[in-house]
Amino acid sequence: MLVAILAFGCAPRGDWISQTLTLVDVSGTWEGTIWGQGAGTGQMARSIRLVLRQRGTRVTGEVDGGAAFFGVGSRNVDGVVNGDVFTFQVATFRGQATVDGAEMNAQGTGGAGIFGAACPCSIVLRRVGKSSEEP
Length: 135
What we know:
With about 140 residues, the protein is mostly beta strands. It is built from three helices and eight strands. The model has no long low-confidence stretch (mean pLDDT about 80).
């Protein structure tokens, strides 16, 4: 019986690192700038605002601004948090951000921007408010 108890205690439980990993909280409002290449105009920058809601590792929200990079279609943000990394998508734009307190630095690819904006893109955001849905 002792062997059975010890064997159960040693049974694989999945990835223990992800079970103990502390997740950053990206809920709230973030404002900043996205930079990329404009068609024949060199560097192009646009202001953006993300309003995010996080439940566990899953993140949803909306983006305002940045149509030159994201296009004029869907404004929905869909993503996940893994430790201090926030991976997200807006339409065909994909980004990966490192979150450090009230600052988020991201790199992005894809997108279907207007005005000929092209990625790879860089994004710098600062938290300007917490979500009202937080407990």
